[in-house]
Amino acid sequence: MNRSATAIWRGSGMDGEGNLTTQSSVLNKTQYSFGSIFEDGTGTNPEELVAAAHAGCFSIRLSFVLGDKRVYS
User: Fold this and answer.
1) Radius of gyration of the chain, Cα coordinates, nearest whole angstrom
2) Contacts of 17 (CB under 8 A, 6+ apart)
3) Closest by CA position to 20, among listed 32, 38, 11
4) 8 A C-beta contact, residue 43 and residue 52
5) Quick one: the chain helix, strand, coil %, rounded to 5?
6) Which residue has the higher pLDDT, 66 or 59?
7) Beta strands in the chain (DSSP E)
8) Does residue 73 lie in a domain region?
9) Which of 24, 57, 64, 66 yields a CA-CA distance of 20 to 30 A from 72?
C-alpha cells in the first residue's frame, strides 16, 4: 500500500507557518509552525507525528506477540 502526504511551508523559518495533509485526509491542512515545534504553540510537529507512528506500530506488534500470532519473522 502506498500513501502520500504533502507539507507546505510559507514564510521564514521563525515567522512562517505550514500545514500537513495526508492522502487519507486524517490530516487535512493540519497546522504546524516554529511555535509548535520549539515552543507550546498550536498545531502539531514532525516529532509528534513520528512518535505517534512509532507508538501505533509498537502497539500492533505487541498485540500480535501477546496473542502469539506471528506476522513478522
Assistant:
1) 16
2) 9, 10, 11, 31, 32, 33
3) 32
4) no
5) 35, 25, 40
6) 59
7) 5-10, 17-22, 30-33
8) no
9) 24
Are 19 and 5 contacting, i.e. CB atoms less than 8 angstroms apart?
Answer: no
Please give the grid coordinates belonging to residue 49: 507525528
Q: Residue 29: give the domain boundaries.
A: 5-66
CA distance 18 to 6: 10
Residue 48's CATH number: 3.30.300.20
* Number of domains forming the structure of the chain: 1
Q: What is the mean pLDDT of the chain?
A: 89
Q: How far apart are CA 58 and CA 72, in angstroms?
A: 13
Q: Is the pLDDT of residue 70 over 90?
A: no
